[in-house]
Design brief:
The complex is a heterotrimer of chains A (345), B (309) and C (552).
Chain A: H1 30-40, H2 42-59, H3 61-69, E1 81-84, E2 87-90, H4 118-154, H5 156-171, H6 174-188, E3 190-192, E4 195-197, H7 203-212, H8 214-229, H9 232-239, H10 244-280, H11 292-300, H12 308-335
Antiparallel strand pairs in A: 1-2, 3-4
Helix pairs in contact in A: 1-12, 2-4, 2-12, 3-4, 4-5, 4-7, 4-8, 4-10, 5-8, 6-7, 7-10, 8-10, 10-11, 10-12, 11-12
Chain B: H1 2-18, H2 24-29, H3 35-45, H4 51-63, H5 76-111, H6 116-130, H7 133-147, H8 163-197, H9 200-207, H10 212-243, H11 245-251, H12 256-265, H13 269-297, H14 299-303
Helix pairs in contact in B: 1-13, 5-6, 5-8, 5-10, 5-12, 6-8, 7-8, 7-11, 8-10, 9-10, 10-13, 11-12, 12-13
Chain C: H1 2-27, E1 42-47, H2 62-68, E2 76-78, E3 89-91, E4 99-100, E5 106-110, H3 126-137, H4 152-156, E6 166-169, E7 174-178, H5 186-190, E8 219-225, E9 229-234, H6 238-243, E10 256-261, H7 265-273, E11 279-280, H8 286-295, E12 300-303, E13 307-313, H9 323-332, H10 335-341, E14 346-348, H11 371-381, E15 387-393, H12 396-412, E16 415-421, H13 423-430, E17 440-446, H14 453-460, H15 479-489, H16 498-511, E18 515-521, E19 523-526, E20 538-539, E21 543-544
Parallel strand pairs in C: 1-10, 1-11, 15-16, 15-17
Antiparallel strand pairs in C: 2-3, 4-5, 5-7, 6-7, 8-9, 9-10, 12-19, 13-17, 13-18, 14-18, 20-21
Helix pairs in contact in C: 9-11, 14-15, 15-16
The chains are: A mainly alpha (345), B mainly alpha (309), C alpha+beta (552).
């Protein structure tokens, strides 16, 4: 059988090697094909790299704090002076205006109203924001997959009950829920039996954000599982005598992995936006810790005299979330070029 | 629907009774109060009753329009009613703006798929959905309002008082609220249109000799709109129900969102339950409307076949 | 297709341009119709927080009192004067200062005759009794100041139908008040809006905000739309009060005031700068302050106010139960740093009493900031328990103060955790004994009336350590100082060396470092071009005196 001499390019298809007999063409797994597609999407890769760069930037926080800025993220320097261009300048002027950004190691991005180094806070704040985003995404994913699988597999009253609960969570105005829980738990923390979480622990906003987006992710997964359930391979699995857990884990779950991966990535982005909103309203990360959201909230007070305090953390959020969104988009295109998940067992 | 509303009200009530030290009686009694005064206030407000009695009383008060705030003795239902014009002005205006822009951008993107216009619009859309709303509001306020003095810095002017001023004060809030959704919806429309463009019925239409533009608008666009409309219903419900809180706060618009924000700041339970119920009601209402509209728009559902996922 | 697109684009651009043009024109400030010069006209005032109640017996915030000072006149009132003169209690609706019996327990007053409320009803002596009754029946926070009247507690809990300690005669206008015990603050308390007579048509047990009672002051309230806006207009019947011989009350200088709430301080600053707002009640935020000071100095000035900002420290539990630790904190904090957090509006202090309060005397027991001295003291005390919780509330400058203090404590060698509580519930949270870990935190106190007892008793007396809602956050309990407080209360301020003794009491508490006070917040007067800046003045108790606001 003759192999095509010209490469045939269908949108999204990788190029088959020219001149190789068909029998010798190695079968490629869907994952490898996806990877090839992703590799060709330069913009997505670029933004994925950008995200990694931002993560690295934030991880370098202790280095910067020690070596360059010589101050921690929460250290106040209201009445201190710093040597800039050979002149001793007030970090915070007597009328409360902090110094602005400039090319000096200390206070590279200026200071905030408490005399704290904005650059240092930005890096530490990034760690907090990204950590919350990823951890919350993990919680959402686990819960959403669980709910989706259970609903899709069992249907009936399990589906009805869980879906009602999802409806309640979905209908609860998100910000109000986040703020309500955040404020409620901030004072005394959470104490359920042996589980004890301090009021200012990051796990409180993580749990809240994780919980809020479960319906958002659970519904599509549930829809897919419901569709998959009707397929022949399911009948085969049942006929083989596999129990429900095995079926869910080894038959259904692998088929939704692509959806999970895509949603997980996009979920991190949404989580970071929600965290910044909650922190802005005072219900997310608690003072004096930095997160990009709290930095915007703090900077908002002095937006007229020191706009950089608001602009910089916001830009970081936009860059990070954007890179996650673009990369997530690229992932979705790569994992499923026809925009409908249809991987067969 | 009723069950969902009921569950939400119980949740809110419980959460706020779990917060330690937010005893409204102590707050109302003032900074110098002695224990006797606090006890009297407590009894007057019915706070010494068991929780479920308090809950039932509060629910009754919501429905009879008698619910009063702890912090300020104003009627909650009245305040929500007063805040409604601002919130609806903001949400409806933003919704019109975002739908018009989203359809336009999505259409352009789909039609020029893969080319520069598409890429540029996609990046713009992605930027749109990556921007925190309150931050964008602050930046717009700073640059366009404070520095350039093009727009007023805050406040809501009722439509009845001065339509031009009303719109003038709302332009920046509309823009801010719309940015996020334009990005999202244009991409949804684009991906739907791309799907539909390769469908059989479109190819048939083309084969019949209908102009490309007609095909695009009458066949492709129309059919792609169904999921967009349903999504719109859900999002609009969510925005009115509480999504506008940040925009209203930053722009100081006296709407339901701002009222909710203040109530949260003061941990004032009655307005919070009122606003949450209001919000949930809207979300559930629109959920239902969307289900109905979906059935109406998609004849396949009406006729009884399974809807595409 | 492309033609349509081009056309669409043109239309869009054109409409955008014209929209901007139209709105640009509309943006040029609108000119309110200004009234006649001197003694007339309409002004508008903005405030960040609307008054809690438009009800003289219920309102207990500065915003509320500022509004009500010139709407409801009590039997006694505070002099309409700037500075310390304004803290003097003078006759209002009463003919003269009260006759106080020798044992200090009976006060006799006489209501002026022929006075009318704004709706024309005559002002009667029994209207005073009615006002006091409202305090108890409407559960007012101010009722505590009057529970020393004989028979008041019985009336409050319903066992009596009247307050036996108040006897009035509507025909002669005589009012006799009997107290349980002599009380040097009672005259001050009679001058507060709480004690302003209101007609018996006012609801006894309900808040009258939506329909305020007829007024006895230069202004009357004509409409209220809480919490957005309210309107006050000249009281046509105020002349009857002036004609009855009241000399210490002031007449209105404008015909109408429209009060609007505006959550954005910055927008208010811009409004006053651009003359669309005539007066803003709150001081400009720190970041606009400099701009206002430099560019609008001809209609802006800083004003003293009677308040103290301090850090409370739990005197009864470790580690702050050791006086050396408390003194270390006093050495460590830097009032200048805190002043910068306020944008330069904080006058440094190390006293309990603020300047302007009788009994204020300036001295520095802990000159500083001296971090070395502080660390030395701490090393000497060497507390075993270094894990402490620092409390503050979430208003922006309070949060920054908390963050600063938290950092200072960490520098000192503690392991501090910061807890930020919602503003409205902050004081009830830290005033609640059952809240765990109440070690130290932000505190401030604004006077209720210019008498030192108003500072010492609620904040430092052992009796003020209550299970809930106590204001003695420091849990300071020094029986010998309590006794002194009680002794001084029975005296009148003008008697002998009472003021000096209060100053000594202040020093005694600071020697024990019960608190770490650091500043007195200054307020501001910032008015539009239209307002006569020289006439406008800041009253030490009621913020701005609105009767003095006049158009040029």
């Amino acid at each position: 059988m003759a192999t095509p001499s010209d490469a045939v390019e269908a949108p999204g298809d990788p190029v088959l090697p020219v001149g190789v007999p068909a029998a010798r063409i190695r079968g490629r797994s869907p994952w490898y094909l996806a990877w090839l597609r992703l590799r060709r999407n330069r913009i997505s890769l670029a933004f994925g790299a950008l995200f990694l760069l931002i993560v690295l930037f934030c991880l370098a926080a202790p280095l910067w704090a020690d070596q360059v800025a010589h101050t921690g993220p929460n250290e106040n320097h209201i009445t201190d002076t710093v040597m800039i261009d050979g002149q001793q300048t007030d970090v915070v002027s007597p009328d409360g205006t902090p110094i602005g950004p400039g090319l000096h190691g200390r206070y590279l991005l200026g200071a905030d109203q408490n005399g704290r180094d904005v650059m240092v806070r930005l890096m530490y704040g990034g760690r907090t924001s990204i950590y919350i985003g990823v951890a919350a995404a993990a919680i959402t994913t686990v819960l959403a997959v669980l709910v989706g699988l259970l609903c899709g597999y069992y249907r009936g009253w399990v589906d009805a009950t869980l879906s009602r609960i999802m409806d309640v969570v979905w209908a609860f105005p998100v910000l109000l829920l986040g703020i309500a829980l955040g404020t409620a738990l901030a004072l005394g923390g959470l104490k359920i039996g042996a589980l004890q979480i301090a009021g200012d622990s990051l796990w409180i906003p993580i749990m809240i954000i994780g919980l809020v987006y479960v319906p958002y992710m659970a519904r599509p997964i549930r829809g897919e599982i419901l569709a998959l359930r009707e397929k022949e391979f399911m009948e085969a699995a049942v006929a083989q005598g596999k129990g429900p857990v095995r079926i869910m884990v080894s038959e259904l779950l692998p088929n939704v992995v692509s959806t999970i991966i895509v949603f997980f990535t996009l979920n991190i982005a949404n989580n970071m936006l929600l965290e910044s909103a909650l922190s802005f309203l005072g219900a997310g990360v608690r003072a004096p810790n930095a997160s990009w959201g709290t930095m915007i909230a703090d900077g908002y007070q002095t937006i007229y005299t020191a706009p950089h305090l608001t602009i910089v953390p916001g830009l970081m959020i936009v860059l990070t979330v954007l890179s996650l969104n673009v990369f997530g988009d690229g992932l979705r295109d790569a994992l499923d070029p026809r925009a409908k998940i249809r991987l067969e067992h | 629907m009723v069950a969902v509303l009921f569950a939400i009200s119980v949740l809110v009530f419980l959460i706020f009774n779990v917060i330690p030290n937010s005893d409204p009686a102590a707050r109302i009694a003032g900074k110098n109060a002695d224990p006797e005064l606090i006890a009297r206030v407590s009894a007057d407000l019915g706070l010494d009753q068991p929780l479920y009695v308090q809950y039932l009383t509060m629910m009754k008060q919501i429905f009879t329009g008698q619910l009063t705030s702890y912090a300020s003795s104003q009627n909650v239902v009245e305040q929500i009613w007063k805040g409604l014009p601002a919130t609806l002005s903001l949400c409806i205006g933003a919704a019109v703006l975002w739908m018009v822009l989203a359809i336009w951008f999505g259409y352009l993107s789909a039609v020029h798929a893969g080319k520069f216009t598409d890429r540029a619009l996609t990046i713009l859309s992605l930027v749109g959905i990556s921007v925190p709303v309150f931050w964008l509001a602050a930046i717009l306020l700073y640059y366009l309002s404070f520095k350039a003095e093009l727009f007023p810095t805050s406040g809501y002017v009722p439509l009845s008082r001065d339509p031009l001023d009303w719109a003038y004060h709302l332009i920046l809030p509309w823009l801010t609220l719309a940015v996020l959704y334009v990005g999202f919806y244009s991409r949804v429309l684009r991906s739907n249109m791309l799907d539909v463009m390769n469908d059989d019925h479109v190819r048939t239409a083309r084969a019949k000799g209908i102009s490309e533009r007609q095909v695009r608008i009458k066949h492709v666009l129309r059919n792609s709109m169904i999921p967009v409309v349903t999504l719109f219903g859900l999002d609009f419900g969510a925005v009115v129900g509480g999504g506008a809180i940040l925009t209203e706060t930053v722009f100081n618009l006296n709407g339901v969102g701002l009222y909710a924000g203040q109530a949260i700041g003061t941990l004032d339970l009655p307005p919070l339950i009122g606003v949450t119920m209001f919000g949930a009601f809207f979300i559930v209402l629109f959920n239902t409307l969307v289900d109905v509209a979906y059935a109406f728009l998609d004849p396949r559902i009406r006729i009884g076949e399974a809807a595409p996922v | 297709m492309s033609k349509l697109r081009t056309a669409l684009r043109k239309v869009t651009v054109l409409s955008c341009i014209s929209a901007v043009a139209v709105f640009g024109v509309a943006a040029c400030g609108s000119d309110d119709g200004s009234g006649a010069s001197g003694g007339g006209g309409e002004i508008n005032i903005s405030m960040t927080s609307f008054p809690d109640y438009i009800d003289p017996q219920l309102s207990y915030t500065l915003e509320g009192w500022e509004v009500l000072y010139n709407v409801y006149t009590p039997l006694l009132t505070y002099k309409h004067a700037r500075g310390e003169e304004g803290t003097a209690v003078v006759p209002g609706l009463a003919e003269a200062m009260p006759e106080i019996s020798d044992d200090g327990k009976t006060y006799k007053l006489k209501l002026r005759s022929g006075m009318k409320f704004s709706d024309g009803t005559p002002i009667k002596a029994s209207d005073f009794t009615y006002a006091i009754q409202r305090l108890f029946k409407a559960d007012s926070g101010g009722s505590v100041f009057y529970s020393g009247i004989v028979g008041a507690p019985a009336y409050a809990d319903g066992t009596a139908d009247t307050i036996s300690g108040i006897v009035t005669d509507d025909a002669t206008g005589d009012i006799t008040i009997t107290l349980d015990a002599p009380n040097g603050t009672f005259e001050n308390v009679l001058g507060l809006p709480f004690a302003a007579p209101v007609p018996a048509s006012t609801p006894l047990a309900d808040d009258a905000t939506n329909n305020p009672p007829p007024s006895s002051g230069p202004f009357m309230i004509t409409s209220v739309e809480a919490p957005q806006t309210m309107t006050m207009e000249r009281n046509p019947n105020f002349q009857s009060v002036l004609d009855a011989g009241a000399t210490e009350v002031a007449d209105a200088n404008v015909d109408k005031i429209v009060v609007t709430q505006n959550k954005s301080n910055s927008a208010q600053v811009t409004g006053v700068e651009q003359n669309t707002i005539d007066f803003m009640v709150d001081p400009p935020d720190a970041d606009r302050l400099q701009e206002v000071k430099t560019r609008f100095g001809d209609r802006f000035r800083m004003e003293e106010s009677i308040n103290t900002y301090y850090f409370w420290m739990n005197n009864q539990t470790a580690p702050f139960n050791d006086v050396r630790v408390r003194q270390a904190v006093n050495y460590a904090i830097d009032p200048e740093a805190l002043n910068r957090v306020f944008g330069g509006r904080l006058h440094p202090t190390q006293q309990i009493l603020p300047p302007g309060m009788p009994g204020y005397e300036e001295y520095k027991l802990y000159p500083g900031p001296d971090m070395n001295k502080a660390k030395a003291l701490l090393a000497e005390a060497n507390p075993a328990d270094r894990d402490i919780t620092v409390w503050t509330n979430d208003e922006p400058d309070r949060k920054r103060i908390g963050e600063y203090y938290h950092d200072v404590l960490n520098q000192l060698g503690f392991n501090a955790t910061l807890k930020v509580i919602a503003g409205d519930v902050y004081f009830t949270t830290i005033g609640n004994q059952s809240t765990p870990d109440l070690d130290t935190g932000f505190g401030n106190w604004f006077q209720d009336f210019p008498h030192p007892d108003d500072f010492f008793r609620p904040l430092l007396n052992s009796d003020a350590i209550l299970p809930t809602n106590g204001n003695n956050f420091s849990r300071a309990s020094y029986p010998e100082l309590d006794a002194k407080m009680d002794e001084l209360l029975t005296k009148q301020l003008t008697e002998g060396d009472t003021e000096a003794q209060y100053a000594a009491l202040d020093k005694a508490y600071m020697e024990r470092a019960a608190w770490a006070p650091y500043g007195n917040e200054q307020f501001t007067t910032f008015v539009s071009d239209r307002i006569d800046f020289d006439k406008a003045y800041h009253h030490l108790l009621f913020n701005q005196d609105w009767s003095a606001l006049a158009l040029k």
